[in-house]
Amino acid sequence: MELFNRFNLIFKQKLSIILLTIRKNIKGSGLMNKNIVLVDDDLDILESFESYLSVFLPNVTIKTFNFPLEALEYIKKNSVDFLITDVTMPKMTGLELITEIRKEKPLPAYVVTGYFKEELKIDPTINSVATKFWTKPVDLKLFVKELTGDLCLVK
Amino acid sequence: MLSQIKKLLISSEADIKSWQVCLSLAGFAYPLWSHFIHWSYPFKFTDSPIQRWALGLSCLLTASFPMIIKNKKFLKLFTCLSFIVCIVVSLHYYYLTRINNFHTLYAIGYFLILSISVSFFTNIIQSIIFAPISLFIIYNISYKQTFIHPFIYIAWCLTIMGSLYWVNFFKQKYFKNLLFSLKENLKLKENLQSSSRYAALGEMASGMGHEINNPLMVINTNLELLKINPTLKNNKSIVAMQKSIEKISELTKGLKNFQNITNLHEQNKISTLLILNEVLPILNPKIETLKCQIDLIDKNNQIFIANKKVLSQIFFNLINNSLDAIEKSNKKSIAIKTEEDSSFVFIHFTDTGIGILKENEEKLFTPFFTTKSSNHTGLGLSICKQLALSLKGDLYYSVYKGLTRFTLKIPKH
After folding, report:
1. Which residues of B touch chain A, with CB atoms under 8 Å apart?
2. pLDDT at residue B312 tops 70
């Protein structure tokens, strides 16, 4: 167990170093002035998620929406680079939101679900543009890492 | 044999039928047997042929009455009556033997006939053991009493052995399905209940997973935030975490009621409001996303006695079903109404959903029938029906003012 704990500590330290390098990279990279839209029906999740992301992505503007229909209107009118959405929401599911948006413009999106089903992946309209499925509770470090990578790809 | 009779008396339609066959067989065999005795022994008996056939006919009538009468109250009365007749018949024989100094030969004969007819539903081995023993006794008694012609003795043996053979033959040829259904019915019922529990679990797990993962996400992100800034006293995040922990604990409290139903005979004093208070928190996320309105019309707040766990499972399944049906319709509401009778409580679940096609009405309560997508097992309603029957109630479907309605009928006591 002691050995395991030691390895665990070393692993954590390495992870923190990686995260720090990511943070440094962000400041100088093309992540400047990117817009992210967060959609979730749970206010607590929205707040905590936003504050967490704003720590690691300081130069990215994050807009949060409690209702998917509001988010849809905002995305149609403004230029948005990335979408992070929940699936089960009132009046409109996250998947419906993505398909609705992609009728007009290809927007990369992350889907964060409470309960992941394989059937979600089958929908062809959603799989056409880079999407990833995350199950709650999300591994936040991995999430930020992947998100920064995908954000850099967005022109 | 007693346990066999007990099993036969359990109020299931198939069981009653088998029991009726038993009695009608005895009703035929009894007068025939006594005629045979009369023929083989040139004694003078006190009972006349008319008396014998009257008793046999009474057996037959008691067996056939429940087939005609389908009212459950009368049915129970007649089952009791026919058993009394059976006992009276055997007592009558005992009385006859006492009068005629004919020992227990008559009684043994009657017992043998009964045992054969009962062995219909047990197995061959038991009936084969019965025959030689009864023969041995009959032989001993008759040898001491009077002289029997060897021809009669052989005929006797042949009739008994032959009857056993024919009983088994007919049993395999004509009553195989009946027997199969008798034994399989019990097994199927048990299997259905367990598998239905699993199905309900599966559907609940998907909903539960979502509801638990959401607050876990809040806790996780807030903890990560505190990790980054441990010195900062972030009250907001702590409050959020506490809130989400409370959410989870509330959910698990609701889950308690959906434990395995091990004790069906447990009785609780309950009302519809009480059960709804337990069921609705679990279904709440689904209700909120659909923005569905649920009304309870229970004027007297009727209190009745039944098993709480079973009822809450039925309620859960029915409300869940109507929520599924409502999903695509414009007006979304479910009405739960209680009415009472002198002996029953009726709980109506009416919804404004898409309704049920006429061709599907018959198959509604059959297991594994579903019109929903592949991840539904089609067990919900069949389980509900089984559970309702186990409470000595019923569950049926009807159309009320163009709306789909399921009615749960539960005895008051």
Report:
1. 206-207, 209-222, 224-225, 228, 236-237, 240, 243-244, 285, 288-289, 291, 375
2. yes
A136 touches B: beta carbon within 8 Å: yes
DSSP B257-270: GGS----TT--EEE
CB within 8 Å: A136 and B211: no
pLDDT by 10s per residue, chain A, length 155: 666 666 666 776 667 666 666 655 555 455 667 889 999 888 888 888 888 888 888 888 899 998 888 999 999 888 888 899 888 777 788 888 888 888 888 888 888 887 666 666 666 566 555 577 888 888 888 888 888 888 877 76
Percentage, residues of chain B above pLDDT 70: 46
Mean pLDDT (chain B, rounded): 69
CA-nearest residue to B244 within chain A is: A44
Q: Note whether A135 contacts B: Cβ–Cβ < 8 A.
A: yes
Give the count of beta carbons closer than 10 Å to the beta carbon of residue B118. 20
Chain A nearest-CA residue for B239: A44
Query: In this structure, what token pair is assigned to residue B26?
Result: 């005895």
Percentage of residues of chain B with pLDDT beyond 90: 0
Judged by CB atoms closer than 8 Å, whether chains meet at B206 and A115 is answered as yes
- Rounded CA-CA distance A95/A115 in Å is 14
> How far is the CA of B45 from the CAs of A19, A83, B37, B165, in angstroms?
108, 101, 10, 31
Helix then strand count (H, E) for chain A reads 7, 5
Question: Do B244 and A44 make contact, defined as CB atoms within 8 angstroms?
Answer: yes
Q: What is the ipTM of this complex?
A: 0.71
* Chain B residues within an 8 Å CB radius of A111: none
3-state secondary structure of B340: strand
Contact list in A for residue B211 (CB cut-off 8 A) is 114
3-class DSSP assignment, residue B281: helix
What's the pLDDT at B122? Answer: 44
Give the mean pLDDT of B302-306: 82
Contacts of B234 in chain A (CB under 8 A): none
From the list B211, B221, B243, the residue facing A49 with the nearest CB is B221
Residue A114: its chain B contacts at CB < 8 A? 209-214, 217
Tell me the residue ranges of DSSP E strands in B206-261.
Answer: none
Q: Does the pLDDT of residue B318 top 70, yes or no?
A: yes
What residues contact residue B22 under an 8 Å CB cut-off, 6+ apart?
B8, B63, B117, B118, B120, B121
In what helix (H) or strand (E) does residue B24 lie, and over which residues does it extend? Answer: helix B13-40
